[in-house]
Every structure is written in structure tokens, then in C-alpha cells.
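Deviations from the work plan: none for this task. Representative record:
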Amino acid sequence: MFHIYCPYCEEHREEEEFHPKGQAHIQRPEDPEACSDEAWGDYLFFRDNPRGVHHELWVHAVGCRKFFNITRHTVSYEILETYKMGEQPTITAQNLPGKDKQSGVQAASGGWQTVGARPESEALNDASNQGARV
Amino acid sequence: MSQVNRLSQGGRIDRSHQLHFTFNGKPYVGYAGDTLASALLANGVDIVNRSFKYSRPRGIVAAGAEEPNAVVQLGASEAAQVPNVRATQQALYEGLTARSTNGWPNVQRDLMGMVGKLGGTFMPPGFYYKTFMAPASLWMTYEKYIRKGAGLGRSPAEPDPDIYDHLNQHCDVLVIGAGPAGLAAARTAARSGARVILCDEQETMGGSLLGSRERIDEAPAAKWVDRVLDELGSRDNVTLLPRTTANGYHDHNFVTLHERRTEHLADSAPTFGSRRQVRSRLHRVRARQVVLATGAHERPLVYANNDVPGNLLAGAVSTYIRRYGVVPGRKLVLSATNDHAYRAALDWHEAGREVVAIVDARANPKGDLVAKAQSLGIRIITQSAVIEAKGAERVSGARVAKIDAKLFSVIGKVEELACDTLASSGGYSPVIHLASHTGTRPTWRDDILGFVPGEVKGLTPAGGAHGIYALNDVIRDGAEAGVRATQAAGIDADTDTPALPKVAARQDGEACALYQVPHEKQTMRAPKQFVDLQNDVTAAGIELATREGFESIEHVKRYTAMGFGTDQGKLGNINGMAIAARCLKRSIPEVGTTVFRPNYTPVTFGAIVGRHCRDLFDPERYTALHQWHVEHGAEFEDVGQWKRPWYFPRTVNGKQESMHEAVARECLAVREGVGILDASTLGKIDIQGPDAREFLGRVYTNKWAKLAPGRVRYGLMCKDDGMLMDDGTTSCLGENHFLMTTTTGGAAGVLEWLELWHQTEWPELQVYFNSVTDHWATMTVTGPDARKLLAEVTDIDLDKEQFKFMDWREGTVAGVPARVFRISFTGELAFEINVQANYAMHVWKTLFEHGKKYDLTPYGTETMHVLRAEKGLIIVDQDTDGSVTPEDLGMQWAIGYDKPFSWIGKRALSRPDTRRTDRKQFVGLKPKDPKVVLEEGAQIVFDPKQSIPMVMVGHVTSSYYSPSLGHGFALAVVKGGHERMGDTVYLPMADGMVHEAEIVSPVFVDPKGERQHV
């Protein structure tokens, strides 16, 4: 059972309080009508399944009801960081320290999706606002 | 029967405190401090079980959790039955009653043993599958008898009288195992002020030190144990949990501990007055750091007939002598590969019994214990091993020969030694089970000939658990692990080397690697050499598995059942891997190990369930009117966690109505008079904010821009794949204020859905959501007389021009502030009265006082279903299943294609798949035979004469008998159904009957919708 740091409540809580909501940083296309059927199908149905670093959307369902992101290692199940909506991860398959890479970490094909949730402003990506490291 | 094997002195038992117990129906006597196993050995009981597959007689092998044979069924009464208890872990208590789990009709004279003897050579791995495969239909018959012969215990047939608790715990350092390493670790951690939990599976903490011949601080080791426990016990920051097994190690240092609080006292927990003590506790521990001090299990050697009773682990022999004052035989032969095992022979000798010989696989054993044995004149046979045990129901001799372990062959003449006990030791396997539970692979170390835990974050192994065995090293390692864990937990530990107790360092010679002992005959032809005693897996079985192509150790495991079940490979796994490695000509690390899984030892269901049983199994939600429903005889239906009235049967002429009769009466009351429904369970979400209206437009398929305050609209909610996920009405309470209703089951999910879109996609919209489901009670008054009734108790103008269909008004009802919504789920004139939940009972009762003259009829969910189906109104997740679009439902009128924002689900409705004309579409079905009520879920075909498998074109989603129409009717989805009005379809049933039905509009009653507008 995971022990999850909620970046809004700013404390560790038990997994029972949270719901997983799938891959993070899936952005709904700005203009759905301009999408091809294939692009819309990709948005709806296709998700990464990496062995290694994975960015996931979770909700503190019976806590503060806030959605946030978790960077989790799908082999060790270690939670590498959690960060608020609109923020970007500081740990990715590309920049994970070498030692962890050797222990079986591989980037998903194409790496993590770079689209990301739209930050409200660039300031959200400032170090001072980055998600809590756990 | 006297305790023939009991020594007159020694051991940690109380000879003044006799305990009577029964095993397989025979009475015996033991002492306080005994385990069931030590008491059985003291009484000279050789056979404790029959083996799983071959039904061979089996005796006690070990003294702890690794015991494979002495697995018993405990309990004097039916309700107290506990299966799968290891006799080595069960403390003796007065009146204990135990039986063997295997053996039919009994362990002494076993019928299945004949099968084992006759068929033994013909029972290779896969025997049951290969033999009883065909015909498949008979497997159930075979299985009954196979199970009877090979039973593994049974569950009680009567309710458990005991109570069990769950405790959520947090600590800085959890120390698992209270042997020398665990005690040292717990002490250093505790002295730093860390919150420490120390747990140990045995009756008494101390681990190996309880039966050790070694001295600490120039006193018996057990004295040091007492001192450390005294210190730990006096600290507020330490929790000591004896009789507590750490059974599962889960993600992020979540460990489940099973504490047995009364299992050493009696069958069921003792009572104090009327209160029963808690039998066991499951501690759910979230530890910052875990110190794994679980020690090591001794490995037996794999030689021929190594399963005959009288074959024991060397360490177990020492434990029984030193801790329980029991010598399990008269004449001992010890077969060993290491110095440590010599303790068994020394203890045996000191107990005054004969050590026939120590057979050592090493050419030139050297070390303090070897020297001691030599000085006592014990015969030591070097570079040799016991290759075969003699005897049937008890060891009668040992065949000993010079061997070459590397070439795997016998190289000398065989000598036969007479003995009744054969102890063996092939080295030690660190108990790494817990470290493996999270999936981390262990690492093989050639220097200790064993696997040690792989690197697990937050876990520090100590002592034997990672291959450190000399006592002085173990204590130092434990103390250091305590420091490391404390620091890792973020607490300032005293980094000075903690004062260590004085332990005389012992010189041990190097151990040699030996797993399976060679025999003069090839493995396949030699007498059985057992690897896994619990699952009857032999060396020949593993060899056969590798020959048949099972090369992965995981496949070998599944083919042979090695390490299965409650055993989890405690004794046999390493030997099995070594044999597989030899057969495959690989090294042990190349073969690798299988995955250990929770639980380490069996946990009773009672402990797992805790208080989550009976009334507390699942939460139940009641509406504010629940008590009234109970008092008026309602039958209830579960809707999610809600208890909703299903129907209200009346007693007519002394006879209670059937559901069919009650529902027919309730339906007619609504259609012809007035009925009332408790609709409080509908989900209600309060939505506020300047962008609330915009938000609604994005999550609903239809338009919300022009909904004025005082108006209500029905809305459909889709996922972005265009499939319907929920429906309900939303009312405009003010320009920036709306009240959304959801289905009863969808309430929580819809709220989360709204939050998801707001928080992740449109955070710029100013809108807020709050669940108000429980705050408001909802009473639906419906039927032609609804207005007359409501008018008597409200100040709201109910004039049909002032208060139109799909309007809502604020006012008072029965003197209470209320919101009244003119919406209808029955097709009749209807008012949904919402009041604060705590006023609901007053309002409900007032309505009934005034409703008497109209014969106001309470109705339940079944009548609600029939009435709405007659109107063709859907229930999401009954008439839909996540693959139905609003267009499939024929609800084009509720789709705002021209809304400016591309609302959720819109884009998907123009995908090729959603534009297919042969999609399953929502229609009504009218059975040709008016008496027929079609089965919900029945499949629909166009041509009943086609051959099976038929082409299925849809299915019935709702089906009822309509009291108003006087015939059965159904709602269904049919491929291209909207274009097939008037067509006949067929519903072939399992019994061969084929129903005919006509495709019609789903609206059966009042198609123009005039009745709800009156």
C-alpha cells in the first residue's frame, strides 16, 4: 500500500485516501473539431505503459479532493516526487540518476509525454514552486 | 503414556505445571513452556502426519516456522477449528486438541499410503494432471477423493465466537525478529529516542539465544536477553510484540503484523465477565525504517529416505534438548557440512545419550566445536555423508559413504550405522522472505552459500538475515543496523559504537557446499530424496522437470509444486534450486530463485477480516425517512450503499401481498390517484460561481446558456468518447447558482468527474462544487391528485400556468422551508419536495395526514422502475452500459451540436464508429404474447431458424409487467433499431422456448406527454 505525499495537504497519507486516474499530462486538444479521427482516437484511448518512470494523475479523493501528479517507478513502485496540477516534473526518465537507470529503468518509447498540463504561468515552473520531493 | 524423551532437568519449561492435551484422539501430558511439537516429541510420538501426495509417514523435522510436516488442525469444538497450524509454533495449553491434517482414515494406518507405495514410482510430477485429465467431466469426481486423501486442513463449519482487531501503527524503526541481532538493533534505536516496535513470532523473545550454549558477558545468553527486554520494556518509546509474526512486507514500508494474543491460552479467547478478550490483532504498521532480523533457516541435506520420522534438522535437535528438555531419540548420527551443526551432537552427548557418529562432508574439518567433539571421543567420519536413511516408520539406521560432492558421486564403500535419529545440516539460508515480498530479487553469495536480501529502500537487514552467523558479529551488526535505521529515519542517533556485550569469539572452520547427497544409484532410481517435504517434491521430480524442458526455476516450481502453499519454500527452495542448477549445468545464481509471497506463515481469516464483518462488513446509508419505511413494512433494496424501500407490501385479508401484487397496486395508485417516493438518495451537487453556467455547457450535451432562475432542465453527461455516463436534472437557483442531481449510484463519481475537468483542464473557470446529497431529503409526490394534496400543505402557488412543468419554486411545505421541483420520472403530474433532511420526517408525516383522503400510497424502487420504463425513461447503467451514445438512445433533442464550446463527448460523436447506422439503438419491445415478461439480458436475433451460434443483434435492458397496460413490455437495444419500428424480433431462451416481440417506440404510456403537464 502506497504512502503518498499530497502536495496540497503537505503531508503523507495512506493510499486508501487516493484514487489513481491514469497517465498524467494528457492534454485535451484545444480544438477537438480540428483533430483527425486518428488524433482524437490517440487522445482518447492510447496511453504509455513504461517500465520505469511514469507520471500519473491521482486525486486525494477522501482528503482535499485535489488532483495532482505522481512520478512513480513502475518497477520499484517508489514514488519519486509528487507535484501540483499545472507543474512539470523535475524527475523524468531522461534525467533519473544513472544508478537507478541501471536497475532496470527504461524510458517508454518516446519518453514521457511532453505536452504537459498548461501551467497557469511560467512561474509555476520556478524551482520555488516545484512539487515536494519525497 | 509417560514422557519417555523428557530429560529430568534443563530447558525453559515448568515441570511443576503439567498440561493435558489430545493428539489424534489420544491423551498426553506436557509442561508449561512446551510447544505442541516439543510435547509430542517428549511423549515419543514419531508420526505426526501423512505426506501430501505419497501419504508417507512423517515426523517433526524442525523447531520453528519452517516445519513442513507437523501441520495440524487445532480445536476441540467445531467453531474453534483452525487449520494449518504448525505444531512447532503452537504453545501447549491445558485441554489443547489437535489432529493431523493428512491421513485417511488415520496417520498410523493410512489407506492412501498403499497408493503411495504401489504407485509411488508411477507418481511423477504432473501425475494427477496426466492421469486424471480425461474425461474432463470426471475431474470433479476424482478430485473429491484426491482431496480426501491429501487434505490440507479444513475451515470451521460454525461461526467463530472470537473477535479480532485491526490496529494502524506508525513507528520510526520496526525491528522484525527478537534474536541477538534484533535485540541489539532495537536497543540502540530505542536509546536514541526513536519510536520502536519490536516483534517476534515466538512465545518468548530471544530467538536462538533461548537454546544457545554460548555465553554473553560471562553468563548464559538468556540472561542478556532478559536484561535487554527489561530495558526495552521500561521505555515509553518501545512497543514489544511477542507472538507476533511479520507476515507481509508491502510497498513503502507497510508491514502487516499478526499478533496472536490468546492462542497460547485456549481454543477460544478467554472471557472476563461478559467481555471476550480479543483473540488476535492485525497491526498495519507504516514504519519509517525496518530492521530485518529474521535470522536464518537451517537447510537439511537431501539424501534417500530423508523423510522417515527420526530425520531432523541439527539445529532443531539442539533446540529441543536445550530449550524444552527433550531428546528426540536414543542414538544419533549427524550429517553435516559446517561447524555450527556440531552443537547438536554436543548437546546430545551432554544429555547423556549416544552419538554414534558425526559424518562430515569436509575432508579436514577444523574449528573449536570440532575440537570439542573430538575431545569427547565422538567418532567423526570425514569427506562423507549419510546417503540413505533406513527404516519405515522410524529411522533404524544410516548408510554412510565417502562422497565427492563436486563430481556428485559416491566414491567409497558404504557403511551402515545403527541409530534412531538422523540430524542433518547443509548450511543456513537467511530468512529473506519479507525482503522479497515487494518483488526485489535476492543476491546469491558464494561465501555464505545462501541468498541475501536485495537492496530494498527503507530496509536494513541485520545478523543471520544477511548471512552473519557468529554471535559476536551478529550482535555488533544488529547494533549497527539499529544506528543506521535510526539515522535513516531522520533521528539523531548516538553514532559512537554502542557498548557491546562480551562474547567469546569462536573459531569456525569453513563450510562446504552440499545440497543433494549423491547415492550409489542414479537419482531417478535411488529411494526418494525429498526436497520439499510439505509438497512431496523429490530430487528425481526436479530432475524430471528439467528433462521435460522446464528450465526456468519458476516453471520448475509450478510443475513440481516446490515451495507452494503454506510452506513458501522455507526448507526446500535452495536445495531445489541447487538440484535444478546441477541438472541444467548452471550455477545457482544463474538459475535464480522464485518469488516469495505474503503471507510468511498462514494468517486466519478472522485476523484479516478484523471487525469488518457482520453488521460492519460494509457501511449502510439510510435516508432521513428510513425509520418510517421500516415501521411500514418496506422491503429494502441495496442501491450502492443505500438502503432504499423496494416496495411496501400490505396485508390484505390476513395475507401479505407478493411483490408483484404490491407493485401492481402501487403503480395504479400513481397512475390513478397519488403516490409518494423517498427520492433522497439521488445525488445532489451544489454548483456556484460566475462560470457555473459555462461549465455546465461543457460537461452536459445540451444547452444551458438560457436556463433562467426558476427553471429546471434534464441533462445528459458523456465521457469524451461520446458514451453516456450519467443523467439527471439541473436547476437554476440563481444566475451563478445551480443544483445538479445525479443517479443514486453515480453521485460520488460525477462529483469527482466535475472536479477532474475543472482542476486539470479548465482551472481558469470560476466554479465550485459541493455535495449536498445528505443535506436535503427529497419526497416525490406524483399522480393526478398530487396538486390537490400538496396545495393543502404549501404556500407555493401551484397554478399550472404559474408553476409549469420543469419549473421549481421556493416556499414552505408543512411549515418548513422547501424547494419544490416540477419534474416527473413517472410521466404523471409530479412535485419533488426538497427540505432540510432533519425536517423530512415531519413533512412526510404531514403529507400522510393530509393524504389519507386521497389514499396516498408510498411506493418503492420497483414501482419507480416500472413507471419510468412505461414512459421510456432510461436508467443509466441499466439501459446503458458505457457503449451507448445519446443518439443511440434517440435523444438527439438533448444534444447541442451548435454550442460554441466543443463539449465533452461531442467530437467522438462524429467518429466513424459512432456514425455507424447499425449501432445498437434504444427501442421498446412488445411481446406478441401479452402474458410474457421477457428476461432482462435476453439476447435478440432477427432470424430464429439460423444455426447456433446465432447472430445476436441486441438484448433486453429492462422488462416488466405493466399493470396500466395489462401486458408485459420491455426496453432493449437492437442493431439499427430506430429504423426497424414494427419489425418482429426473436428471443431464443435457454430452455428452447423462442419469444417473439415487436419493435415499438420505448414510450408505452402517454406518448404525447400530456399527463405530466396537467
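Confidence is low (pLDDT under 50) at residues 100-134 of chain A.
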